[in-house]
């Protein structure tokens, strides 16, 4: 058994001082407040959120797509073309090396777990590997190495658009039929079962562009308890395409045609009418927001205030992994609302500051989206914890919600000192315990990729 002790900690009942946390078999056994210091001591302990949306391999493109191309208006769609050309070169070894670095960076940023929306399944020529879950198994191997909590979401991807056009050359690595996908999913589940008990498998129908209504109905029974993740309403062109072919905007269509509930996570949801926003909040589904990537790709701004006022659950994800930064993800979410509304503290409540609403919401919603018993410092939950450096200039002497406001708005992930994922103490003094080895392998992989591209 491990005992952690915090001068102050954020519990489901609010901020408490002198908090003693007992951990056994990866779970929090007990939480006692107002105690004298003992065990391993930390100034500030928080529940560590889940990163609810990642495409690990895209990390290797970070910083390489910021030039204007021949298209007079560079857009999400030109970026996607570049991304497709890039992934044509990736081998299973490359994907494992990239995923391991990504997971190290996520843990160092303060995330305890990741929901990996994994769609790179086939060999470059589009044929399945001998083990159809070869690529999924590489994500699992990376997670076993880094100690991150993994919710693997194998992606089902059928078509190149709502008109059921076949996939283009750059998309053949994603392709499955419902039958081939169920074989792949079973093999991926066997790989996930080799990880510690906090790992989960879910499912991700890619989007309403890539999956038709029959395909969606065919694959959902593979994971009756969820989690189910889907990209939805990220881009205006996507909304128009779904409206033209399915007769409703994507979020509206999903709510009317699928049993969307708290097992679901709707990724992006940036393009919604107010009635869709309110209906989605009432459905219990988590809004999977990726404010840094959405800014980078020019997706649009989530209607956060309306969604939260309607009782909606949300979490954050690093999506394209152009930058993996938890505090910045939360800050960007709030700043996008401020810039649109020309207001301050848009997501704050009377009794909870902006930082508290953002952090607590992301911890709770992220855990829900990953199907992970976590998101709070409470008995029975996985010990997903993050410690902040109480000696940082902007944290010293601060108490209560101001800690989170200072960390998110004045600070950054350099304030993260330690992270535990289901009790695995993988970040110490701000560094992942295997950072050097995993970063060296990533550098070698990138050098090989540069030579191949
Ligand atoms: Zn995505």
Automatic annotation (TrEMBL):
What GO terms fall under cellular component here? cytosol
Q: Which residues form the Amidohydrolase-related domain?
A: 44-425
Molecular function (GO) terms for this protein are:
deaminase activity; metal ion binding
| Matching Pfam families | Amidohydro_1, HutF_N
Entry-linked InterPro entries: Amidohydro-rel, HutF, HutF-like_N, Metal-dep_hydrolase_composite, Metal_Hydrolase, Metallo-dep_hydrolases
Q: Which cofactor does it need?
A: Zn(2+)
SUPFAM superfamilies per record: Composite domain of metallo-dependent hydrolases, Metallo-dependent hydrolases
The source's domain of life comes to Bacteria
Do the record's keywords include Transferase? no
Keywords, alphabetical: Hydrolase, Metal-binding, Zinc
| Record-annotated Formimidoylglutamate deiminase N-terminal domain positions | 1-39
Name the chain's protein.
N-formimino-L-glutamate deiminase
């Amino acid at each position: 058994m491990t005992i952690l002790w915090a001068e102050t900690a954020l519990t489901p009942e609010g901020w408490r001082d002198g908090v003693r946390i007992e951990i056994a078999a990866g779970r929090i056994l007990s939480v006692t407040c107002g105690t004298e210091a003992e065990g391993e001591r930390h100034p500030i302990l928080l529940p560590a959120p889940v990163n609810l949306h990642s495409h690990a391999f895209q990390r290797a493109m970070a910083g390489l797509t910021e030039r204007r191309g021949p298209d007079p208006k560079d857009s999400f769609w030109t970026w996607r073309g570049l991304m497709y050309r890039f992934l044509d070169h990736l081998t299973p070894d490359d994907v494992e090396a990239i995923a391991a670095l990504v997971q190290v960076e996520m843990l160092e940023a303060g995330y305890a777990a990741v929901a990996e929306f994994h769609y790179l399944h086939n060999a470059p020529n589009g044929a399945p590997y001998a083990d159809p879950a070869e690529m999924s198994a590489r994500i699992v191997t990376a997670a076993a190495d880094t100690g991150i909590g993994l919710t693997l979401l194998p992606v089902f991807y059928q078509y190149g658009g709502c008109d059921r056009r076949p996939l283009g050359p750059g998309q053949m690595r994603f392709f499955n039929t419902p039958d081939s996908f169920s074989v792949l999913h079973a093999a991926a589940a066997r790989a996930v079962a080799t990880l510690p008990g906090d790992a989960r498998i879910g499912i991700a129908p890619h989007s309403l562009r890539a999956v038709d209504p029959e395909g969606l109905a065919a694959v959902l029974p593979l994971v009756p308890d969820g989690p189910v993740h889907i990209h939805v309403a990220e881009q205006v062109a996507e909304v128009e395409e779904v409206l033209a072919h399915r007769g409703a905007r994507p979020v509206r269509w999903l709510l009317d045609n699928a049993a969307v509930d708290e097992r679901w996570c709707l990724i992006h949801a940036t393009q919604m009418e107010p009635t869709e926003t309110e209906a989605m909040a009432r459905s219990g589904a988590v809004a999977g927001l990726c404010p840094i990537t959405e800014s980078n790709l020019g997706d649009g701004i989530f209607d956060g205030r309306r969604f939260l006022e309607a009782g909606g659950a949300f979490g954050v994800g690093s999506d394209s992994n152009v930058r993996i930064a938890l505090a910045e993800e939360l800050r960007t979410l709030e700043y996008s609302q401020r810039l649109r509304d020309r207001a301050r503290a848009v997501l704050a409540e009377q009794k909870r500051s902006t930082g508290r609403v953002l952090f607590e919401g992301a911890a709770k919603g992220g855990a829900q989206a990953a199907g992970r018993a976590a998101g709070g410092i409470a008995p029975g939950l996985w010990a997903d914890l993050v410690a902040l450096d109480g000696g940082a200039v902007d944290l010293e002497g601060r108490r209560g919600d101001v800690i989170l406001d200072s960390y998110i708005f004045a600070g950054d992930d350099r304030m993260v000192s330690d992270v535990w994922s289901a009790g695995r103490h993988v970040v110490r003094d701000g560094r992942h315990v295997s950072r050097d080895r995993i970063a060296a392998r990533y550098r070698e992989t990138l050098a090989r990729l540069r030579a191949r591209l």
